[in-house]
Amino acid sequence: MSGDDPRRVELAERLAAVEQRVARACEDAGRDRSQVTLVVVTKFFPAADVRLLAGLGVRDVGESRVQEALAKAQEDALAPWPAPAGERLTTHFIGQVQTNKAAAVVGWADLIHSVDRPKLVRALDRAAQAAGTVQGVLLQVDLEDGADAGRGGVRPADLPALAELTAGSEGLDLAGLMAVAPRGADPDAAFARLAELAAEVRASYPGAVVVSAGMSGDLEDAVRHGATHLRVGSAILGARPGVR
Ligand SMILES: *Cc1c(COP(=O)(O)O)cnc(C)c1O
Protein backbone atom coordinates (compact mmCIF):
# COMPACT_ATOMS: atom_id res chain seq x y z
CA MET A 1 0.00 0.00 0.00
CA SER A 2 1.42 3.32 -1.04
CA GLY A 3 0.02 5.59 1.62
CA ASP A 4 2.21 8.46 0.49
CA ASP A 5 0.28 9.55 -2.62
CA PRO A 6 -1.46 12.67 -1.30
CA ARG A 7 -4.48 12.28 -3.59
CA ARG A 8 -4.91 8.70 -2.43
CA VAL A 9 -4.77 9.81 1.21
CA GLU A 10 -7.30 12.56 0.53
CA LEU A 11 -9.70 10.20 -1.24
CA ALA A 12 -9.30 7.60 1.50
CA GLU A 13 -10.16 10.14 4.21
CA ARG A 14 -13.17 11.54 2.37
CA LEU A 15 -14.43 8.08 1.46
CA ALA A 16 -14.12 6.97 5.08
CA ALA A 17 -16.04 10.05 6.24
CA VAL A 18 -18.85 9.36 3.78
CA GLU A 19 -18.87 5.68 4.75
CA GLN A 20 -19.34 6.80 8.35
CA ARG A 21 -22.24 9.04 7.37
CA VAL A 22 -23.87 6.18 5.47
CA ALA A 23 -23.35 3.75 8.34
CA ARG A 24 -24.84 6.19 10.85
CA ALA A 25 -27.78 6.98 8.57
CA CYS A 26 -28.50 3.26 8.20
CA GLU A 27 -28.30 2.79 11.94
CA ASP A 28 -30.65 5.71 12.57
CA ALA A 29 -33.09 4.32 10.01
CA GLY A 30 -32.92 0.79 11.40
CA ARG A 31 -31.59 -0.48 8.09
CA ASP A 32 -28.72 -2.83 7.40
CA ARG A 33 -25.72 -1.19 5.69
CA SER A 34 -25.80 -3.95 3.08
CA GLN A 35 -29.15 -2.61 1.81
CA VAL A 36 -27.48 0.55 0.55
CA THR A 37 -25.02 0.78 -2.36
CA LEU A 38 -22.68 3.75 -2.44
CA VAL A 39 -22.14 4.85 -6.04
CA VAL A 40 -19.14 7.16 -6.24
CA VAL A 41 -19.76 9.80 -8.92
CA THR A 42 -16.45 10.44 -10.68
CA LYS A 43 -17.65 12.88 -13.37
CA PHE A 44 -15.15 15.66 -14.16
CA PHE A 45 -12.38 13.74 -12.37
CA PRO A 46 -9.66 11.77 -14.17
CA ALA A 47 -9.35 8.05 -14.69
CA ALA A 48 -6.47 8.09 -12.22
CA ASP A 49 -8.95 8.94 -9.46
CA VAL A 50 -11.20 6.06 -10.50
CA ARG A 51 -8.21 3.72 -10.18
CA LEU A 52 -7.34 5.08 -6.74
CA LEU A 53 -10.95 4.64 -5.63
CA ALA A 54 -10.99 1.08 -6.92
CA GLY A 55 -7.88 0.46 -4.87
CA LEU A 56 -9.70 1.81 -1.84
CA GLY A 57 -12.46 -0.73 -2.28
CA VAL A 58 -14.98 1.25 -4.32
CA ARG A 59 -16.93 -1.07 -6.62
CA ASP A 60 -19.67 1.20 -7.98
CA VAL A 61 -18.90 4.31 -10.01
CA GLY A 62 -21.20 6.82 -11.70
CA GLU A 63 -20.68 9.05 -14.72
CA SER A 64 -22.99 11.60 -16.29
CA ARG A 65 -21.46 12.37 -19.67
CA VAL A 66 -21.16 9.76 -22.39
CA GLN A 67 -17.89 10.93 -23.98
CA GLU A 68 -16.20 11.20 -20.62
CA ALA A 69 -17.38 7.78 -19.50
CA LEU A 70 -16.13 6.17 -22.71
CA ALA A 71 -12.79 7.97 -22.50
CA LYS A 72 -12.19 6.70 -18.97
CA ALA A 73 -13.17 3.20 -19.96
CA GLN A 74 -10.57 3.40 -22.73
CA GLU A 75 -7.98 4.45 -20.21
CA ASP A 76 -8.72 1.18 -18.47
CA ALA A 77 -10.04 2.90 -15.38
CA LEU A 78 -12.90 0.43 -15.34
CA ALA A 79 -10.84 -2.66 -16.03
CA PRO A 80 -10.47 -5.09 -13.14
CA TRP A 81 -7.51 -3.20 -11.85
CA PRO A 82 -6.49 -3.59 -9.10
CA ALA A 83 -9.44 -5.73 -8.07
CA PRO A 84 -8.97 -9.49 -7.87
CA ALA A 85 -9.52 -11.39 -11.10
CA GLY A 86 -13.17 -11.68 -12.02
CA GLU A 87 -14.18 -8.54 -10.16
CA ARG A 88 -14.81 -5.35 -12.01
CA LEU A 89 -16.40 -2.04 -11.27
CA THR A 90 -20.14 -1.73 -11.66
CA THR A 91 -20.92 1.25 -13.89
CA HIS A 92 -23.85 3.61 -13.35
CA PHE A 93 -24.89 6.17 -15.94
CA ILE A 94 -26.64 9.02 -14.12
CA GLY A 95 -26.77 11.84 -16.69
CA GLN A 96 -29.23 12.75 -19.37
CA VAL A 97 -29.05 10.47 -22.39
CA GLN A 98 -29.57 11.64 -25.96
CA THR A 99 -31.24 8.98 -28.07
CA ASN A 100 -28.36 9.00 -30.56
CA LYS A 101 -26.04 7.96 -27.70
CA ALA A 102 -28.24 5.05 -26.62
CA ALA A 103 -25.96 2.34 -28.02
CA ALA A 104 -22.87 3.88 -26.44
CA VAL A 105 -24.51 4.10 -23.04
CA VAL A 106 -25.80 0.52 -23.28
CA GLY A 107 -22.26 -0.54 -24.12
CA TRP A 108 -20.86 1.21 -21.07
CA ALA A 109 -23.39 1.06 -18.25
CA ASP A 110 -24.47 -1.76 -16.03
CA LEU A 111 -27.35 0.38 -14.78
CA ILE A 112 -28.77 3.50 -16.44
CA HIS A 113 -30.41 5.72 -13.78
CA SER A 114 -31.80 8.45 -15.99
CA VAL A 115 -34.48 7.12 -18.34
CA ASP A 116 -37.25 9.67 -18.57
CA ARG A 117 -39.14 9.50 -21.86
CA PRO A 118 -40.72 7.00 -24.27
CA LYS A 119 -38.41 7.86 -27.14
CA LEU A 120 -35.39 7.05 -24.98
CA VAL A 121 -36.97 3.81 -23.76
CA ARG A 122 -37.41 2.72 -27.37
CA ALA A 123 -33.87 3.71 -28.35
CA LEU A 124 -32.31 1.89 -25.39
CA ASP A 125 -34.48 -1.16 -26.03
CA ARG A 126 -33.34 -1.32 -29.65
CA ALA A 127 -29.70 -0.83 -28.64
CA ALA A 128 -29.84 -3.51 -25.96
CA GLN A 129 -31.51 -6.00 -28.27
CA ALA A 130 -28.96 -5.28 -30.98
CA ALA A 131 -26.20 -5.88 -28.44
CA GLY A 132 -27.85 -9.09 -27.29
CA THR A 133 -28.19 -7.90 -23.70
CA VAL A 134 -30.90 -6.94 -21.28
CA GLN A 135 -30.14 -3.45 -19.98
CA GLY A 136 -31.01 -2.53 -16.41
CA VAL A 137 -32.69 0.87 -16.23
CA LEU A 138 -34.19 3.19 -13.64
CA LEU A 139 -36.87 5.72 -14.44
CA GLN A 140 -35.86 9.20 -13.36
CA VAL A 141 -38.74 11.04 -11.73
CA ASP A 142 -39.04 14.82 -11.87
CA LEU A 143 -39.93 15.69 -8.28
CA GLU A 144 -40.38 19.34 -9.27
CA ASP A 145 -43.12 18.18 -11.57
CA GLY A 146 -41.98 20.25 -14.51
CA ALA A 147 -41.20 23.42 -12.55
CA ASP A 148 -37.56 23.26 -13.64
CA ALA A 149 -37.35 21.28 -16.86
CA GLY A 150 -33.54 21.43 -16.91
CA ARG A 151 -32.80 18.45 -14.72
CA GLY A 152 -34.76 15.83 -16.59
CA GLY A 153 -37.14 13.25 -15.27
CA VAL A 154 -40.64 12.05 -16.03
CA ARG A 155 -43.50 13.84 -14.34
CA PRO A 156 -45.14 11.68 -11.69
CA ALA A 157 -48.41 11.68 -13.67
CA ASP A 158 -46.63 10.13 -16.66
CA LEU A 159 -44.69 7.57 -14.62
CA PRO A 160 -47.18 4.66 -14.83
CA ALA A 161 -47.25 4.76 -18.64
CA LEU A 162 -43.46 4.98 -18.88
CA ALA A 163 -43.09 2.08 -16.43
CA GLU A 164 -45.48 -0.01 -18.51
CA LEU A 165 -43.59 0.76 -21.72
CA THR A 166 -40.25 -0.06 -20.09
CA ALA A 167 -41.43 -3.26 -18.42
CA GLY A 168 -42.83 -4.40 -21.76
CA SER A 169 -39.52 -3.82 -23.56
CA GLU A 170 -37.68 -7.07 -24.17
CA GLY A 171 -34.26 -5.45 -24.08
CA LEU A 172 -34.83 -3.61 -20.82
CA ASP A 173 -35.14 -4.58 -17.19
CA LEU A 174 -37.12 -2.06 -15.14
CA ALA A 175 -35.04 -2.04 -11.97
CA GLY A 176 -36.57 0.92 -10.12
CA LEU A 177 -36.64 4.71 -9.81
CA MET A 178 -34.17 7.57 -9.48
CA ALA A 179 -34.59 11.19 -8.47
CA VAL A 180 -32.66 14.30 -7.59
CA ALA A 181 -34.06 16.41 -4.76
CA PRO A 182 -35.30 19.73 -6.14
CA ARG A 183 -32.94 22.64 -5.56
CA GLY A 184 -33.97 24.72 -2.57
CA ALA A 185 -36.69 22.29 -1.50
CA ASP A 186 -36.73 20.04 1.56
CA PRO A 187 -35.06 16.76 0.54
CA ASP A 188 -36.95 14.94 3.27
CA ALA A 189 -40.31 15.72 1.65
CA ALA A 190 -38.94 15.03 -1.83
CA PHE A 191 -37.60 11.59 -0.92
CA ALA A 192 -40.80 10.74 0.96
CA ARG A 193 -42.66 11.41 -2.29
CA LEU A 194 -40.16 9.31 -4.22
CA ALA A 195 -40.65 6.43 -1.78
CA GLU A 196 -44.42 6.58 -2.38
CA LEU A 197 -43.95 6.53 -6.14
CA ALA A 198 -41.46 3.66 -5.85
CA ALA A 199 -43.97 1.65 -3.81
CA GLU A 200 -46.63 2.25 -6.47
CA VAL A 201 -44.32 1.06 -9.24
CA ARG A 202 -43.26 -1.99 -7.21
CA ALA A 203 -46.91 -2.93 -6.71
CA SER A 204 -47.15 -3.54 -10.47
CA TYR A 205 -43.52 -4.55 -11.13
CA PRO A 206 -42.12 -6.39 -8.08
CA GLY A 207 -38.63 -6.49 -9.60
CA ALA A 208 -38.35 -2.70 -9.56
CA VAL A 209 -36.65 -2.59 -6.18
CA VAL A 210 -33.96 0.03 -6.71
CA VAL A 211 -34.42 3.54 -5.32
CA SER A 212 -31.55 5.80 -6.41
CA ALA A 213 -31.63 8.96 -4.32
CA GLY A 214 -29.33 11.03 -2.19
CA MET A 215 -26.17 12.92 -3.04
CA SER A 216 -23.40 14.54 -1.00
CA GLY A 217 -25.73 16.98 0.73
CA ASP A 218 -28.77 14.85 1.42
CA LEU A 219 -27.76 11.21 1.65
CA GLU A 220 -29.12 10.89 5.21
CA ASP A 221 -32.61 11.92 4.07
CA ALA A 222 -32.41 9.43 1.22
CA VAL A 223 -31.39 6.55 3.49
CA ARG A 224 -34.23 7.39 5.87
CA HIS A 225 -36.68 7.12 2.98
CA GLY A 226 -35.46 3.78 1.71
CA ALA A 227 -32.82 4.62 -0.89
CA THR A 228 -30.97 1.55 -2.10
CA HIS A 229 -28.40 3.54 -4.08
CA LEU A 230 -26.69 6.80 -3.13
CA ARG A 231 -24.87 8.87 -5.76
CA VAL A 232 -22.10 10.74 -4.02
CA GLY A 233 -19.56 12.88 -5.86
CA SER A 234 -18.13 16.02 -4.28
CA ALA A 235 -18.11 14.74 -0.68
CA ILE A 236 -15.57 12.14 -1.82
CA LEU A 237 -13.76 13.68 -4.80
CA GLY A 238 -13.94 17.34 -3.78
CA ALA A 239 -15.43 20.30 -5.64
CA ARG A 240 -15.77 19.56 -9.32
CA PRO A 241 -13.32 21.45 -11.52
CA GLY A 242 -14.77 23.95 -13.98
CA VAL A 243 -18.38 23.29 -14.82
CA ARG A 244 -21.20 23.91 -12.28
C1 LIG B 1 -23.27 14.98 -10.06
C2 LIG B 1 -24.44 14.17 -9.65
C3 LIG B 1 -24.48 13.56 -8.39
C4 LIG B 1 -23.40 13.76 -7.33
O1 LIG B 1 -23.61 15.00 -6.72
P1 LIG B 1 -22.73 15.48 -5.47
O2 LIG B 1 -23.52 16.59 -4.89
O3 LIG B 1 -21.41 15.90 -6.00
O4 LIG B 1 -22.62 14.34 -4.53
C5 LIG B 1 -25.56 12.77 -8.10
N1 LIG B 1 -26.56 12.58 -8.99
C6 LIG B 1 -26.57 13.14 -10.20
C7 LIG B 1 -27.70 12.89 -11.13
C8 LIG B 1 -25.50 13.96 -10.57
O5 LIG B 1 -25.52 14.53 -11.79
UniProtKB/TrEMBL annotation:
Give the N6-(pyridoxal phosphate)lysine positions (modified residues).
K43
Q: Where is the signal peptide?
A: none
Q: GO molecular function terms here?
A: pyridoxal phosphate binding
Kindly indicate whether the keyword Zinc belongs to this entry: no
Q: What is the lineage of its organism?
A: Bacteria, Bacillati, Actinomycetota, Actinomycetes, Micrococcales
CDD domains the UniProt entry points to: PLPDE_III_YBL036c_like
- Keywords tagged on the record: Pyridoxal phosphate
Its required cofactor(s), as named, are: pyridoxal 5'-phosphate
- Entry similarity comment: Belongs to the pyridoxal phosphate-binding protein YggS/PROSC family.
Q: Which residues form the Alanine racemase N-terminal domain?
A: 15-241
- Write out the function statement from the record: Pyridoxal 5'-phosphate (PLP)-binding protein, which is involved in PLP homeostasis.
The molecule here is called Pyridoxal phosphate homeostasis protein
